[in-house]
Specification:
Order of helices and strands: HHEEHEHEHEHEHEEHEHEH
Number of helices: 10
CATH topology: TIM Barrel
Bound molecules: iron/sulfur cluster
CATH architecture: Alpha-Beta Barrel
Shape: globular
Strand order of the largest sheet: 7-6-5-4-3-2-1-10
Number of domains: 1
Number of strands: 10
Strand content: 15-25%
Distance between the termini: 42 Å
CATH class: Alpha Beta
Helix content: 25-40%
Radius of gyration: 18 Å
Length: 280
């Protein structure tokens, strides 16, 4: 892995208030590139969604997000930081207010509380999913407990908002699913389980039998000894444009985006085209 220019990156990166001890945001080169080479704002692509990333104090979001290139897309917000961090409130409201023009919005969060105004806005929008990161890793996630997020899920569901549980990272021998019974009781029913990207820089107590396997895959995400639950893929939205239109949009978009995925550029662009055209 290439750790070059880490100091510059750390200076620019606005610390996430959750403070997970396994956070890789500053360590993943593709994320670092997003901040280093595209200035304060960037549109990041991975195989799931098109992420709008920015720092506070940048240009007004309306001035740089090319909405016509996002039509039919699944859009996320802040692939690098939490969408419900109050620092992003104005931008999040902008995105949500414009989202009816997109195929869908996915907001992945560990934020323990969401402002009532935002909940009201979320509940008024079709095609929005709040993905709650549920891990059972309270000791490693000092800014937010899993059960607080489950309680938030209950509140969102009571307002008619679609919620999905993302068990990510699953750290073998450290993560637990003690929260699962409560989650099911409050109506969170769909879960995705994803693995853990270990770095030897992390100070985490992992049982030796698993640590060996993580060390052997330093920097790569692996799913070890996962919980015995039925894992459902993250929600997908159906785009509404033709294949030709999708290809043209993505050709234009590809000139602006940063690929924030460990997959190849070609593969990410193929997924980007696929998820936005109407499959008839
Ligand atoms: S919530 Fe995400 S960005 Fe924030 S510290 Fe945790 S892993 Fe890092």
């Amino acid at each position: 892995m290439n750790w070059e220019n880490m100091d510059v990156f750390q200076e620019k990166y606005m610390k996430c208030p959750i403070g997970c001890k396994y956070c890789m945001v500053e360590l993943v080169p593709s994320r670092k590139e997003a901040w280093d080479h595209k200035g304060n704002e960037s549109i990041g692509l991975n195989k799931t969604a098109c992420f709008i990333n920015r720092l506070p104090g940048g240009r007004s979001i309306d001035k740089w997000v090319p909405l016509h290139l996002l039509d039919g897309e699944t859009v996320g917000f802040q692939g690098i930081q939490d969408p419900f961090d109050p620092r992003w409130e104005k931008d999040l409201k902008w995105l949500l207010s414009n989202s009816s023009r997109f195929a869908g919005v996915i907001l992945t969060t560990k934020w323990p509380n969401i402002d009532n105004d935002i909940i009201k806005l979320l509940s008024s929008i079709r095609n929005v999913v709040v993905v709650l990161s549920l891990t059972g890793l309270d000791i490693l996630e000092p800014g937010s407990t899993t059960i607080e997020r489950v309680n938030l899920g209950e509140k969102l569901i009571s307002h008619g908002i679609r919620v999905h549980g993302l068990i990510h990272p699953w750290i073998a021998g450290v993560s637990n699913i003690d929260w699962m019974a409560t989650a099911l009781k409050v109506g969170i029913k769909d879960f995705t389980v994803k693995g853990f990207r270990y770095s030897s820089r992390m100070k985490i107590d992992i049982p030796d039998k698993y640590l060996k396997a993580y060390k052997a895959n330093d920097g790569e995400e692996i799913l070890l000894n996962p919980p015995n639950i039925k894992s459902i893929n993250l929600p997908r939205f159906q785009g509404n444009i033709s294949l030709e239109e999708a290809e043209e949009q993505v050709r234009e978009l590809s000139k602006l985006v940063v690929i924030s995925s460990s997959s190849s550029r070609g593969e990410v662009l193929r997924y980007t085209i696929k998820r936005r055209f109407k499959d008839v």
